[in-house]
Write a structure and sequence with these properties.
By secondary structure, this protein is of the alpha+beta class. The protein is built from 8 helices and 10 strands. A hairpin with a 2-residue loop joins β1 and β2. The two termini are 19 Å apart. Keywords: Phosphopantetheine, Phosphoprotein, Repeat.
Length: 344
């Protein structure tokens, strides 16, 4: 691992490791300023197509065209409107989430972390999907509501900001481009105990849609505008994230050659706690990435149990008040936490 110097190209390094005569690791070391998760999928897909002898259709635009558009007057006007939206959303005293921790918060933020993986069973997954269909919501919105209820239960707070990444490719012409498009949204919700889950989900839905519509506004500028008090032991605006990954790992077959993602050990936590969901082999797979300077594995086990308990209760009684939702897991044959042996 070597640091990149942004003023000196290249910002991409590629290496090949031979493990055996018929097994190799092809590594891409890229600075995040020139790529994101979607970019990696594009890179692998086009690599495989070229390896198979295909010719790629020339791109209609380049990333530099996107960069020029970002500096245009029309885009500046659009950002002014979006700035007003975000300043309205984040007005007043901003909440600082206080989850119970096993260790005292370090004076300087630590990135030491670990990941706990689990599976949301078929019964719960179908229940979540049914709620989404019945309310005109998305699975993302339903899971965000469940996650913020979990955070509310552990913190006792009814004003919670959760960060979430957004793909940022708002125009079809951007879909085939490699580059850094991902943005960060600070989504503020109010899980008050007297609300029913359906009422709260409707609020989450409207808040999420508003955030999506105003996703172009740069997060760094928003932090400056709301004048967050900086603490070396915390992130600005929020310390927890929610990530729903709807990009599948790619496995390609070229004759006798198979190309698949190489799984790596994960020991970094960018935030105090990140709840993530992805879909793998027909399963709804979840994970909690957590800071090991704050939480122990047993505490995160409890987060998982609590989240599954919340999901069970909102699927069975979606009109239940948040105050009546408990963290006690409902035991049945399909309600166990299944740990799975893969990394993201």
């Amino acid at each position: 691992i070597r640091a990149f110097e942004l003023a000196k190209p290249p910002l991409l390094r590629v290496g090949l490791i031979e493990l055996a005569k018929d097994r190799h690791i092809l590594m891409f070391d890229m600075h995040h300023i020139i790529s994101d998760g979607v970019s990696m999928n594009i890179l692998v897909e086009e690599f495989v197509r070229l390896y198979g002898g295909e010719e790629l259709i020339p791109l209609t635009i380049q990333y530099k065209d996107y960069a020029a558009w970002q500096q245009s007057e029309a885009h500046s006007e659009r950002l002014k409107q979006q700035e007003a939206y975000w300043l309205q959303e984040l007005q007043g005293e901003l909440p600082q989430l206080e989850l119970p921790t096993y260790f005292s918060r370090p004076p300087i933020r630590s990135y030491e972390g670990d990941v706990l993986h689990f599976v949301i069973d078929k019964q719960r997954s179908e229940g979540l999907q049914q709620i989404a269909e019945n309310t005109g919501s998305t699975l993302y919105m339903v899971l965000l509501a469940a996650y913020t209820i979990l955070l509310h239960k552990y913190s006792g707070q009814e004003d919670i900001i959760v960060g979430t990444p957004i793909a940022g490719r708002t125009h079809a012409d951007l879909e085939p481009l490699i580059g850094m498009f991902v943005g960060t949204l600070a989504i503020r919700n109010y899980p008050a105990k007297d609300k029913t889950f359906f009422t709260y989900l409707e609020e989450v839905k409207e808040t999420t849609l508003g955030a999506y519509e105003n996703q172009d506004y740069p997060f760094e500028e928003l932090v400056e505008k709301v004048q967050v008090t900086r603490e070396l032991g915390r992130n600005p605006l929020f310390d927890v994230m929610f990530v729903l990954q709807n990009t599948e790992d790619q496995t390609a077959h070229l004759g006798e050659l198979t190309v698949e993602t190489y799984r790596q050990n994960h020991t970094i936590a960018k935030f105090d706690l990140t709840f993530g969901i992805r879909f793998e082999d027909g399963q709804t797979c979840g994970y909690f990435e957590y800071c090991t300077k704050l939480f122990t594995k047993s505490m995160v086990d409890n987060f998982v149990e609590g989240l599954l308990a919340i999901i069970s209760q909102i699927c069975e009684q979606p009109h239940r008040r948040l105050a009546d939702i408990t963290l006690n897991p409902i035991r049945n044959e399909e309600a166990s936490v299944e740990e799975i042996d893969f990394a993201f």
